[in-house]
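Quick review question:
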């Protein structure tokens, strides 16, 4: 019998075995319930001993404590708005195709490229439409195809989790913010076009949102940050290739999207987002911002 046990050890019984921290926690539970006990080191773990006549009560108290403090292990259920996320994707693809044609054919005799491309210096000097218009501008078919494919893929899931209107409004806001951030770090003469910033903004939103609302609990830290590792891996794999790749735009889009996704994970109310009129309003705002930016840019260009 253990050396630290009372002299009448046969009148006591061990009711729990655990590591030192857990046994101390359980000991506090018994103390709070006024149950006489002793916590002593055993051969492989710390043990809690109680008088035999109190064993049943002590065991019941510990079982109730464990039940009340049990934490689910595994993926927290990741809520989504659900519904049909495809309309947002169709709108995204349609806007990119129409803008591609307008730039290539100089529709209405206007310089769409000059009016809508990203120019760091011009953006910082008041041409604010350039935070939005470059997101839809392409002059090469291969560039367009890549952004259509990746943007539709990531955008679909943002739309699934946040709604076909709110999701794309979030992508637009994050991508425009990414362009402003790029303008702050690039040379004033820097120019670029393409939806890549929006593509990586969508990836950033997905990364942060799934991390904060669907992370693994009670698991090693490597498991909890798995969505972040996956997002950074995709950023590195898809965002750094190509001779004319704008690495700054990709990175800033991802960073802005990650921040946006984290805020949405913290504050977004799924029940509100499930209301059709909320999604419709968000979609109208997103379309109005894109159309308004282009009209502003074309008007300013004369």
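Suggested answer, residue by residue:
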């Amino acid at each position: 019998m253990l050396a630290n046990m009372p002299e009448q050890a046969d009148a006591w019984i061990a009711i729990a075995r655990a590591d030192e921290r857990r046994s101390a926690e359980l000991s506090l539970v018994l103390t709070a319930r006024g149950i006489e006990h002793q916590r002593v080191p055993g051969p492989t773990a710390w043990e809690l001993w109680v008088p035999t006549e109190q064993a049943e009560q002590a065991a019941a108290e510990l079982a109730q404590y464990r039940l009340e403090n049990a934490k689910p292990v595994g993926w927290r259920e990741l809520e989504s708005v659900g519904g049909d996320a495809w309309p947002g994707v169709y709108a995204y693809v349609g806007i990119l195709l129409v803008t591609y044609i307008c730039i290539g054919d100089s529709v209405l005799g206007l310089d769409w490229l000059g009016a809508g491309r990203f120019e760091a210096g011009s953006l910082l000097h008041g041409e604010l439409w350039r935070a939005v218009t470059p997101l839809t501008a392409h002059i090469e078919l291969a560039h367009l195809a890549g952004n259509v494919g990746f943007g539709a893929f990531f955008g679909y899931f943002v739309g699934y989790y946040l709604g076909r209107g709110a999701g794309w409004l979030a992508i637009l806001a994050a991508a425009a913010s990414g362009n402003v951030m790029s303008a702050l770090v690039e040379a004033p003469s820097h120019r670029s076009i393409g939806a890549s910033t929006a593509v990586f903004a969508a990836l950033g939103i997905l990364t942060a949102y799934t991390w904060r609302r669907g992370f693994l609990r009670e698991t090693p830290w490597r498991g909890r940050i798995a969505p972040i590792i996956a997002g950074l891996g995709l950023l590195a794999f898809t965002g750094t290739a190509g001779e004319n790749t704008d690495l700054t735009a990709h990175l800033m889009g991802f960073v802005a999207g990650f921040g946006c996704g984290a805020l949405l994970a913290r504050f977004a109310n799924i029940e509100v987002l499930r209301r059709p009129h909320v999604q419709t309003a968000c979609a109208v705002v997103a379309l109005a911002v894109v159309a308004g930016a282009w009209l502003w840019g074309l008007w300013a260009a004369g």
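Why it works: The beta strands are 12-18, 38-41, 46-51, 74-75, 118-119, 191-192, 216-217. The mean pLDDT is 86.
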